[in-house]
Amino acid sequence: MLSSDSSLLDFIAAVSGESHLKVEEDLGDGFVRLRTAEAERRQAKHDIRSVEDIVVEMLRNARDAGATSIFVAASREDDIRTLVFLDNGCGIPISMQERIFEPRVTSKLESMTMDRWGVHGRGMALYSIKENAKQAYVVDSDEDKGSSIAVVVDLASLPEKSDQSSYPIILKEEDGSQRIARGPHNIIRQVLEFALEHRNIDVYLGSPTEITSTLCYLGSRILDEQELLFCDSLDDLPVYLRPAACGDANELARVCESIGLQISERSAHRILAGDIKPLKPPINRLIPQATPRVDDSVDILRDRRGLKISKDDLDAFARTMERAFQKLGDAYYLSLKDIPKVTVTKDAIRVKFEIEKES
Asked: Any alpha helices (H) in the chain, and if so which ranges?
């Protein structure tokens, strides 16, 4: 015979496991002390009350990861809302991609952020989202490669504002700052409020197809500028740059699916044909002077994959160039310091001969 409520609780915990027991202590008169896990679960349920709350928390999460560009792909089918958040932040190590959704897991050991939405950095945001969403998971990420995180919500369980198409009204203050004066508190408004608070971060909001077109446009510029060479696999690129490195519609649709963007091959053809224009950040549509206008004359049909040659073939080619140089060297008393260096760019192959004159 068990002599006390405490013994009964301990017995149930031992038999059924702690996850099946919500109460740590019966305090009497109808009061109980919840176990930590149950208290956290209830707090998480309270933190997220709408889809718009999820958007805010995910934007703050990307900000704290050092992102300067955030892409939000939003789609809805019946009562299922799907949100995919891509960013160019620091990324999530593979070993942590499931654990970040656990309570109190955070990378902000020494600091927390206090902003207009409250405290951030206590390791509860992603846990709260997962507790309230139908699904929440890392689609693709790694260190220094940015992230793609998907959140799927059943609107029957977690609501969103009924008007998801209207833009709020932004007013300009006497000091030159802008504020949102009125409008529905929908996803668009959450993105705009975040963008107004963080003018150094570009936030793009659209359908998966529109986001893909934007990633292709912006990525093509970055890939050209950095001339990312010798890329054996698209997986070596940051997540958000991969669509820009695709050479045809089939590959584009496949790569987009791998990073959480569901687009048809027909839509991929339209993107590559330039029929679907890249997005501007929503704040730029309302405040055009915020950043320079997007250049719509970009040739999105151009092959941006660069020229890929295997290392073995490059080594063989360098040896051939070494032998070819011998005749010139004999005639002009020149010798090579080392094997010729072969460099490949997106539209050229260059060979550099480092020479020394023979005495």
From this structure: 5-16, 36-47, 51-64, 125-132, 187-197, 208-226, 249-258, 265-272, 282-286, 311-332
Domain count, the chain: 3
187 in the same domain as 231: yes
Residues 161/184, Cβ–Cβ less than 8 Å: yes
CB-CB contact of 44 with 57 (8 Å): no
Question: Using CA atoms, how far apart are residues 327 and 330, in angstroms rounded to an integer?
Answer: 5
The Cα 135–Cα 82 span in angstroms is 9
Can you give the C-alpha Rg of the chain in angstroms? 27
Q: Which of 82, 84, 49, 80 is nearest to 70 (CA)?
A: 84
Q: What are phi and psi of 204, to 5 degrees?
A: -115, 135
What's the domain range around 150?
A: 46-290
Task: Convert the pLDDT of each residue in 80-91 to its tens digit.
Answer: 999 999 999 999
Looking at the domain assignment, is residue 40 inside a domain?
A: no
Contact, 74 vs 187, CB < 8 A?
yes
Q: Retrieve residue 67's tokens.
A: 């992102």
Note the pLDDT tens digit of each residue in 150-188: 999 999 999 999 999 998 888 877 777 778 888 899 999
CA distance 257 to 209: 11
The sign of the torsion formed by the CA atoms of 265, 266, 271, 273 equals: positive
Q: Are 249 and 222 in contact (CB under 8 A)?
A: no
